[in-house]
Amino acid sequence: MATPGHLTIRNVSKTYSLPGRPLVNVLSRVNLDVEPGAFVTIVGPSGCGKSTLLRLIIGLDYDYKGEIELNDKRIVGTALSRGIVFQDHRLLPWLTLEQNIGLSLENSGWTRAEKDLAVREHIALVGLSGFEKAYPHELSGGMAQRAAIARGLASRPEILLLDEPLGALDALTRIHLQDEIQRIWEVEGVTMILVTHDVEEAVFLSNKVVVMAAKPGRIVETLDIDLPFPRDRADPAFVALKRRILTAMGEDGGKTATRAA
Amino acid sequence: MSHTSDTIEAAAVEAATVDLPAHAEAPGRRGLQLPNLTGFILPFIILVLWQTAATYKWIDPVFLPAPLTVVTAFWKMLTKQKLAFDFLASINIVGQAFIYGSAAALLLGIAAGLSRKVEEFFGPTFDTIRHIPGIAWLPLIVLWLGIGAPAKILVIAKSVFFPVFLNTLQGIRNVEKNYIELAKVLTLTRWQLIRKVILPAAMPSIMVSLRYAAGLAWALVVVAEGLSGLEGLGFLIFRAQGLLLTDQLLVCMVIIGLVGFAIDRSMFLAQKRVLKWKQGYDG
Ligand SMILES: Nc1ncnc2c1ncn2[C@@H]1O[C@H](COP(=O)(O)OP(=O)(O)OP(=O)(O)O)[C@@H](O)[C@H]1O
Ligand SMILES: [Mg+2]
């Protein structure tokens, strides 16, 4: 079991400068505290800086103001203690499923046997046993996303970031994988941050939903979701929370989100 | 290197056109078990026409001997002359030239692909050398190394080098940025990045160029042997022309064609094996 990480984001601002254009405020004074083992979902209109925020947390981009700390230590660069699942599954097409997952353990410092065990366990965790030797092109979109989740978790990170991992899937597969993610989160006990356009997904999975707005990218509302797991999408309390988030996202954002859902 | 991409595409296109339609067996048809005979229809027609033309003396037998005469000539060359020796001489040159040329190209191509500095260092020189055809180098190299195999190996290796070098370089440069980012997230070292991400990603482009270069090398050995030296299939062809031994000339031509075909097929199979991870890959 991974040790869940405690993520603190304090006063983070980020600007992009494109030559010949004014500075873009992509993130402005973002504050967020993610408790160890929490499931936090970020929703917000396209372009409000959700992916940018994840890139800062994962350590791919360090050109920002403010502090991001994991377990009270400022994050520096990428590390196996922070995992990410991209929207495109980003499995390497020339590696089999088990090799793809094994790639995340190259520098784990574990023994061969420990690595093999972790790969096998995580393939089983996402329900892909039997496909160890399959190449990514032999997997369906949903299976590829599961594989990407397994890769993100295999090194037992303290926190896993998921950037619209289910965005490209059909509604049924998506609902099915939402159940899976819920189960995996409970089993692994890892802190998770999910970015999604799907408000129902946000309410279904999270302890906390963060609503962002664009121009400049900022947090406009934070809602705690206290419903017991597993959640019933038809429960009036569930529907009421959905409506509150849609309202917080504003008329525009609300419409986009309902259409996407 | 300004013309890099032109040449790559040209190489890729040429390599693709080398591929005859008979290659592309749709995976679905594999269950049929019958060997695909479509590709044999045309050679058969040509053979029949050839025999007919010879039988009815449409063309003077001095210029077009009958197929059977050619077969007899083949047997004579094999048993009474040293066809096998000449054949192996050609194969030896092509084999060595291909190995040296592509090994050097892979090494330098990878180095240049990974480092702009290396590319800038070699770029202008290579771009100039590249535009002097291998065969144009032969007279000078023969003056240096003599008419034996080494001069030909060097010249053909040069012709093998450039398509492979350019495609390796380009293949490495075209690796998706997303994959590099993933490698960073997985904390791969530079060496792991090269071995697990960059080289496999460049492999399709490299394999195309290797296949093209192998065919090119075989075609060039005939020219090189015709221009200098006293052995090899190319030498036999030009000698046969001088002595008006049309049957021997045809023997050599058929052998050259068949070997070229075999080389391309084996390279295609190698390519398919190496790239078995590619979806619907058909060469
Ligand atoms: N490399 C970059 N250079 C300049 N601007 C960028 C760069 N990357 C992102 N941006 C800008 O930053 C803003 C936020 O982008 P980001 O990808 O974080 O949005 P997002 O909230 O993830 O959107 P979506 O929901 O569509 O994925 C956008 O306006 C985008 O144009
Ligand atoms: Mg995004």
Automatic annotation (TrEMBL), chain A:
SMART domains: AAA. The keyword Transport applies. Keywords: ATP-binding, Hydrolase, Nucleotide-binding, Transport. Residues 7-239 form the ABC transporter domain. It comes from the Bacteria. InterPro entries: AAA+_ATPase, ABC_transporter-like_ATP-bd, ABC_transporter-like_CS, ABC_transporter_ATP-bind, P-loop_NTPase. GO terms for molecular function: ATP binding; hydrolase activity. Its EC number is 3.6.3.-. The keyword ATP-binding applies. Belongs to the ABC transporter superfamily. This is Sulfonate transport system ATP-binding protein. It comes from Xanthobacter agilis.
UniProtKB/TrEMBL annotation, chain B:
GO terms for cellular component: plasma membrane. The keyword Transport applies. Keywords: Cell membrane, Membrane, Transmembrane, Transmembrane helix, Transport. Residues 87-267 form the ABC transmembrane type-1 domain. One of its GO terms (biological process) is alkanesulfonate transmembrane transport. PROSITE patterns: ABC_TM1. The chain crosses the membrane at residues 34-52, 87-114, 134-155, 243-263. Signal peptide: none annotated. InterPro entries: MetI-like (IPR000515), MetI-like_sf (IPR035906). Its main location: membrane. It is found in: Cell membrane. Probably part of an ABC transporter complex. Probably responsible for the translocation of the substrate across the membrane. Belongs to the binding-protein-dependent transport system permease family. This is Sulfonate ABC transporter.
